[in-house]
Amino acid sequence: MNENARPHIEKILAHMTTLPGVYRMYGKDGELLYVGKAKNLKNRVSSYFVKTIDHPKTQALVARIYDIQTLIVRSETEALLLEQNLIKLHRPPYNIMLRDDKSYIYIFVSADKPYPRLASGRGKGKHQVGKFFGPYPSAYNARDTLVILQKLFNVRSCENSFFANRTRPCLQYQIKRCSAPCVGFISPEDYKEDVDNSIRFLRGDTRELNQELIAKMEAAAENLEFEKAVFYRDRMALLRDVQAQQAIYKVKGEADILAIASQAGVTCVQIMHVRNGKMLGGKGYFPDMLSDDLGQMLADFIANFYFQVADEIPTELIVNIEVADRKELEAALSQHFDKKIQIKSRVRETRAEWLELAEMNVQNAIQGRLANHFELNERFHQLEQVVGRPVDRIECFDISHTMGEDTVASCVVFDSGGARKRDYRQFSIHDITEGDDYAAMRQALTRRYKKAMLPDLLLIDGGKGQLHMAMEVMQELGLDAFMIGVSKGEGRRPGLETLHFTDGSKIQLPEDHKALHLIQQVRDEAHRFAITRHRAKRDKKRGSSVLEVIPGLGPKRRRDLLTHFGGIQGVLKASEKDLQLVPGLGSVMARMIYKTLHE
């Protein structure tokens, strides 16, 4: 286990639930490393941190873990399906067996024209081009679904080599599982309709499909085409038989499910996302709101989240309590996103199950936060014992740059409630000698405390030199700040830090001291915040400079290009045809961009 993360991980494990669910392991910069499922989350996750683990892959994973998040469900089956959805969505690097989706079965519709093939297989092989659906929990489930599709829509499943050399229909046609396109027994137009219906079935659009079959059956009966009417009737019966089974994998609908709860002064809102009928996980938020009315708090949270944070919104928001001013909130959201939004608190069947999951997770998140809250209070108490004075607010500064390039200073803020991210600040450092950390820190401190109030404790990431420089800044500003410099120990090993005080004294706390854990937590957060901003600033500068040399490519087109491909790396990987797909770019400009970047 990474020594920096040990106290945090041990605290998570101590208060982890024993219910079934999915766990997500994150790295130092918040990157998702691994997704797993468990019948008992506490037992399964704890097993990663026992000393008997000797598998190299697991050891490498554990060494990178800085945080663990869980989502609880009601059964192992739900845990398996949620795990698959998250792996498919995020593709974590340590889910090795799933990197090419080789562990799960997919059903795919090939891109062959004019008679696509419907088949199943393990993984999204590069040799196979088409639309993929899944993953399915087992080969049996996938094959069973494939047989149902063949009975319903008679789409071919044979290999292309077999299909191209047929002179008469095969056995699949005789048992009514294929319409024999190989010998022209069906037109490309009718076959395409069967393929489209197969895709709709796989996406869960069974209700509309059933209505269409009813219409076709009635039309055939009116035209006295009774054999065709019987054919459609049998399809409808089969479709009804499999609708319940289909719901195991997919349930039609898109929604965000929000559950709010409060306990012992801690309020949490859990959001769960359902897209295309699949649960894609969620996240817990702890809003800092001054209200005792949960309905009003949830309404305020919804407004803040969807107007300020979210890029899109589904047509349904399912909540566990009635929100304040629901109709006004619905109208504002509908106008902002240009579609009708409904907020529902009374739901049944599948939506009620989604809401139950959200409520289970919000209670679990609150219990975890309460445990963290008590731990954090104890850390602050221990720190006060060390420094001999009350400490409620801590601010810490850190500097980040690459060989002096794009220097950034960060200021993070902690109080007895934890990190106060809305009070964080970042400073772009200018007009200093490249790589001069002392000058960078001087500029950041001066700009911060010309206006801001002093905290109870100012942490300076550095030894005597940085602390003396900070003392000079405070003297110049006429401020009396309580400061501590934190220098790294031998080999920069965590736990060996030395604390330097303004009177020249210094101490080295024991490695397991809670006050030291608090200082490490604040310092590491300052480092993370600084380096994240620095990298974004550096990459944006480098990416923009590559595109700025291209004649005729103005700021708007550069922005559209970077947005379309998600950054400069996506642009560099794009082909000339891919570049032409950017709105407003055109073939001439796409060719010029490609040649400039590659030739």
Automatic annotation (TrEMBL):
Residues 257-474 form the UvrC family homology region profile domain. Residues 207-242 form the UVR domain. Belongs to the UvrC family. GO terms for cellular component: cytoplasm; excinuclease repair complex. GO terms for molecular function: DNA binding; excinuclease ABC activity. The UvrABC repair system catalyzes the recognition and processing of DNA lesions. UvrC both incises the 5' and 3' sides of the lesion. The N-terminal half is responsible for the 3' incision and the C-terminal half is responsible for the 5' incision. The gene is uvrC. It comes from Acinetobacter lwoffii. It is found in: Cytoplasm. Its main location: cytoplasm. Keywords: Cytoplasm, DNA damage, DNA excision, DNA repair, Excision nuclease, SOS response. The keyword Repeat does not apply. InterPro entries: GIY-YIG_endonuc, GIY-YIG_endonuc_sf, GIY-YIG_UvrC_Cho, RuvA_2-like, UVR_dom, UVR_dom_sf, UvrABC_protein_C, UvrC. This is UvrABC system protein C. Residues 18-96 form the GIY-YIG domain. GO terms for biological process: nucleotide-excision repair; SOS response. PANTHER family: UVRABC SYSTEM PROTEIN C, UVRC/OXIDOREDUCTASE. Interacts with UvrB in an incision complex.
